[in-house]
Each structure stands twice: as structure tokens, then as C-alpha cells.
Predict the 3D structure of the following.
Amino acid sequence: MPVALRWLIISAWVSALLMGGSAANDPLQQPVTFDQPAQSVRQLLQVLSRQTGVKLFASSPLDNEIVLVLVQQMPLKELMDYLAQVMDGEWMKQADGSYRLVRTPRAIQRRRAEDEALLLRGLQRALERQKLSQLAEPLTQQKTVQLRDNLKQLMREIESQELPGDVYTQPQYRALREQIDSLTGLQRVWARLLLQLDLRQLLKIPVGERRVFSNMPGRYLTPFGFATQPLLEQYRRECQLVQDVWTHPTEGFNRDQIEQFYNRYRAILLEILDRLTRAHPTDRQPTRIYLEVRRSTPASWSFKVELTDESQRTFPGWSLAHLQVSLEDLGINERFAPSPGEPVVRVEWSEPSHRYLEAYRTLMRTREPTPLPAIVDPAQTEPLSLIPTDILRTFARQKGKPLVVRLSDELGDWFRMAIQARTELHRFLEVAQDVMQLSETERVLLYKPRWSSYTPQPIADRQLLSEQIHKVLQQGYFRLENWLALSTLELNRFRWGGVPALLLDLIVSSEDWTALMTGNFQFVRALTPEQLAQLQAGKTLIVADLKPPQRALLNHEIYEVGILINLEHEGATRAGPSERLCQLPHAFYPDGLPPDTTLKLVPGDSSLGLFTERKLGVWGVCRSLDNIASELQIVESFQSEESDAALPEYAQGIKARYAQALMPARFQLFTLEVRPVARRRIDLPMERWRGFGDHEPLTNTSAAPLDKLPADFRQKLEEAKRRLKERGEIDD
């Protein structure tokens, strides 16, 4: 035997002895092999504790998180470190020798600091990409004339080329948009504000909420941190300049031509153009500025600017902007697609995943009552142990490395791709980049939710989700109590792409999803049964009589989540466009609602309608008689002796909807009206833009097409049509 080989064998033997001795003396050094589908942290640590004899457990809510671990002969201590890394936690040794995984304030602050540093750099790059500095440049006479002439030329090109009515799909639309933005005063104000604003202020806004920056003081207003008076003076000067150039007697715009162009192409953009031709109010000066910022995701913000005078009358213009930090802005350029000539790696679905896909596809095609199979029931089968587990196992095999993953409910798109029979590994990994963060080292692959410091509890309660699905399946329709229970899952965090949405898609129609996903029922859930009964009886509640937590939730929804405010000038039925008041409660009540503010449930007009959609025997999309009458009038306005194929597509859809089985229903919707007692010239009724309520099928009725429904129901529908005609809302 060669000497070199003999020494190699001896060295390996000695190393093995040393490792064995180390593992015997230090249990944390013993090797661990683990390869099971995704499961909760609690289940994982229980298995590891039995395997190693080292007691491991996690604090709540970490123990409910879902993880996937695929390792071979990895030292336990190393695996524990990787788990702490993906969980944003730390291990704490207990007095009895056990180890507890916790998310300490120090770990939370460290993780948030990492996210904020990366987002701050991304925000700065996003601003550069949007060329805000160009938009913020002072508007000169020469530039204004040039922009006006460019717009006239673009309008001539669109008319001469006979472009289709939908100009949004044409390259000329983008050019029009850029020219208009450069001339819109509030857009320039937004750009100048954002360039001066401390971007760290945007990072302080909780995801899903809004903040309002202003030059006015108030508890619910955030100061800009810099002087805004120069911006307001510049705004007024530039608006006057645009007005003078726009309305020049020989070189300006012809209002009739603008109206003809708008009527032909129906572009919202030209509605803005029309506003610019209106006379700018020169008799008053903007003194107050409100910048509304809403954070929809950790990396996206929307903005709106409102300027008012001392009487809270707004100034004309348009300001809606969106800022999205892209992966490119973050410097992330992960490539998963195979190089030219390399084979495409495909995911092989496990037997449970096959059963899930088959069951889900069948259920999506089913209208009649059907039990929920165990493989689809989230209380019996963890969804993330199926499709995501197979995808990540394939990824680990491709890389030839161990894998430790903290999974997120935002991976619902992986299920949808699998349902559509997609199997290419790189496609799954590419669509997950926005919601999952990959860290690859020489030894391991680590995956966790992107911006995990903003989603500390991304897993929806499986038991609650299952219970509500089964209740609705048994009832055959949704009750208010079901909506309120499901709202506790914070489904709006997962939008339409999450795992909870995937499961509820089986019984919830798209129109009903809108109310569920955008609804915020925290205040309603906080009311006592007595308070809710009082509101339902038509009585009012006084803010001063609410309990402190209830007042806090009410203010939270009004000031941070958002409402719609109906405002009318005293003695007028409708405010003029240039006198429209700022639709922000912050502007009128910067320190919170007065204690004498009243709350009242305002019932809707109709209480009779139809369920028009059905999934697994669950009726949904309840339309009122007035709504049905309006839709039928649309079809009748196109109706002729020609075939249905001659009808526009949307009219065909309406006709088909009422030709299928429908279920008469009785429902009651409410709007929560919040009305501060008026102490000023302007009354301020504030109404929630979304209603809530309850509905159920009529007793002693059965599903049938519209023309086969009971005569008394069809008679009520005809009465609804007559009412609409009398109000002039539909034509004869």
C-alpha cells in the first residue's frame, strides 16, 4: 500500500474518532439527517428532539410557522443556526438544558434594519429610474410652449392614423401621458416633495396603511420636515403660466377640438387635458398641502397630493403616482433559467400532490354540493407540504445542497401554475422572487419570505380556515358571521395570490372576494352584541361612549385605512370641480374625531335580489333588483332580431348569467356612517365606502332561470325597472 494512501486512511480514521468523541461530549455536534415534507416548526423540533435527545422547542407564534428541512449528516448545531437564520430568531438555552427558539426584540430590530437599509437603497434607485428630477425642474415659458405644441402634434397623429378608440395600447398614449404629467401642477408638486422628503419616513408606514404629510399641525398629520411655502408659490406661478399658454387666443387649444377628441377616444388622460383648460383660480392662494401616502406592500407606495386654501377648497389638477421598488432597484439579478443547450429541469409531483391537483381541478368545475376532500382540507393536509415541497426538493437536488426553508402563504401562485400543468422548475423560482429571498452559500440553500421583518406571522390559521369553509359548505351561502371570522385571517395581506385565497376560491366568487379582501372589520368585531344590536335597530352610538380600544380601532380605520367623505357646500347641492373639498378627515379633524361624533348604520334600499353564482353548492354574488334591472336594460338596448352572437361580449355575458339557475334571496346591507356634529359652515358626513351585512336564500323557493322564477318575484323586478325609468336611470 502506498505511503500516501496509508496516511490518508489513518487521517480519516483519526478524524472520525475525534468527531465521534466530540458528538459524545457535545450533543449539538451529532449529525442529523432529515427529509420530510414541509411541516410546522413545532412538529419539526419534536422530531429532532426524539432523534437527538436534545429538547428543542419554539415560542409562539414561531412554532406555528411552516418550514422545510432537507439535510444529510449535518451537525445539529449547524442546523439550529440555519433555522434561527430563516426564522429571524435566536436560540436561548434554558435552565433544564433545553433550547428555545425565540424572536427577541434584538433579532427583530436587526432584521428590520437589514430590510430598511436595502429598501432605502432601492427607493433611491427607483426615484432615479422615474426621472423625478426632470419633472421637478422649474417650468419655463419656452418649455410650456414646447409641451403644448407636442401635445397638439400627438393629437393630430392619433386622428390622422385612425387609431382604435382604446388609445391606452398605442405608443402615442405613453407620449401623451409624459407630456401631461410635465404640465400637471400637482404632479410637479409631488415630485418636488418626494425629492426633499426623508425617505425613511416612507419606511415607517405600516404595510396596508396610509399616512398623510402636511404643513399643518395635528396628531394624525405627519410634518414634512422642510418648508413648503416656496413650493406653493412656485405651483401658483406655474399654473398661471400653463393657463396663459393653454388659452392663448391664436396658438392655444381650441376647446371644441378637445371635446371632440375626448368624445372619440374616451381617454382619462384627455379628461386631465380638459381640466387644464379651465380657468385657474387667481383670486385665492393655496396655503395647505396634504400628501397622502399608502403603502400596499413592503416595497410599493401610492401617492396623492391635495392643495387647499384657508376655506379648504381644493385647487384643480390631478396627482396620482405609484412607486415600486423592483428587484432590479435592489440589485437582485438571480437567474434560474437554464443556459442555452442545458436541459430544462422539471418538477416531479409526489403522489399527494397528484391527488391534490386532481381533486382541486375537479372541485373548480363543480357547482353542486360536494364534500371537501381531506387532501384539500387545510386542517387535515398542510398545503405547503405538497406543491412547494416538491418544487424545493427538485431545486435542492439540482443544486446538490441541503435546504432549509421558511415557507410563506404568499406562494399560492405555485399552486396555480401547477394546476395549469406547468412543471418547469425555473418558472416557479422566477415568480417567487418577489415574495421569497434566497441565500445560497457553499454549504446550504436558505429560503425565507422576502421582507420577513414586515410579515412576522405569514401563516393563516388552518383550523379556522377549515372550520369556516365547512360551515359555508353546510349552509350553502355566506353569513355575516363567516365574513367576520375570515377577516381575522387578514386575507388582504395575501391578496389574490395566497394559499388562503386559493382555498377560498373553491367557494367564493370573484365579486365577493373584493369585499372580503378589502374589508377591514376590526371595529365592527370590537363592538359588543348590545352595541351592534343598537346600531341594527337604527339607533346611534356616540364616540365618547365607546370603550378606549373601540375608539382606537375606529380612528385607525378612518385615518389610516381610509374612508370616503361626502362633502357639500352650505346652500349648494354639489360643489364645483375647483371647489371640491379635500377628501381627507385629516384636513378637518387633525387631532381625531370629536367625542360627540355619532355612528349610525344606514341600510341599503333593496332587500330582495338574486344569488347569481354557485360553487360547490355555495351561492354567491347577491345582486339587488335595481342592479338586475339595470343589467337587463343593457341587454334590451342591444337586442334585435339578430342572433346573440351580434351582441357585444359583455351583453352576452349578462344574458347568459340570467339564463342559468338563480336563487332568490333576501339581503340587508349597511353603510357605517360616521358624522361629527357640524361646528362650521361645512357639514362633514363621513361614510364607509364599503358596506357590510347579511343575506340568505328565500324559503320555499328553488333555483331556476330568471324567466322560470315565481311570478311575484318577476313582478317585483318589473316594478324595479319602472322605478329606474322614473328616475331617468334607464331608457324606455
